[in-house]
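Sharing in case it's useful to others searching the archive later.

Someone asked me privately for the predicted structure of non-specific serine/threonine protein kinase, so I'm posting the question and my answer publicly. Question first, with the sequence:
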Amino acid sequence: MELVHYVGEYKTVRVLGEGRYATVYEGLNGTTNRRVAIKITCKMLMAGTNPHFISNERRAYEILRKNACYSPNIVKFFDFKEDRENAFFIMEYFDGFTLQRVVYESLNNKQRARLTDGERRGFLMQIGDALQFLHALDIFHGDLKPENIIVRREQIKLCDFGCSIVSSDRMCAAKRLVYNGTPGYAPPEVLDMGELVNLDDLDTWAYACVVYYVYSGEQPFAKDNLCRTFKNLKMLEVGYDGLPEYVQRVCEGVFRRRASDRIKMESVMEMVKMFPA
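And my answer, the predicted structure tokens:
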């Protein structure tokens, strides 16, 4: 029998997903009967691996909650609670599947229809719009990947802001990103502890990885072990066989060693806007 957590007026109903640092539950507000998502993060676990994880996520969500306008492509944040052992993020319940699952099943499950060009382009435009909304508020997601994008029918929402960074100067020391993000979804300079990383580039690189994934079902750099992943990242070894030329142009424009040589998010979005629909 599944353990039920009681968090103020909320209680958990069932597990929706589990990640490296947290478990997300479907929850219920006992007063209003509203369905919510409750993300529970263990404080002791985070203290030893990523001590800024909880404060990063809370800061990003508080900025979003105070903003007069809210992106329809970002999961809404309602409340934060904590006790001695755990932190609880109370968020919008968005009933869907991860982009990772949607793409995988469209390519590998014969009972599922393949994604159309219009659906792919629509997902990518929404993801890009959400990123640009965040960047205008000096929020950088820091861990954009298909697992952190939820799809319901034709709508997407970004979630999981535990690796997010709020920075008005839009720069961050690479050593601060050691426990952030997912290998292969960050540019090569993140591997160099002495480097400063441009945060716009960090999310744009991850966005290009998502573009690649949506059309191929594979991650461009990630392999079966970290050594090979880091080697591919340092050498910029990417395979484009079978990918449309317009996808390759976007990826080649972003996947460059020198940050100054990369195309920026605004240009990437203009290119994606021209994808076939």
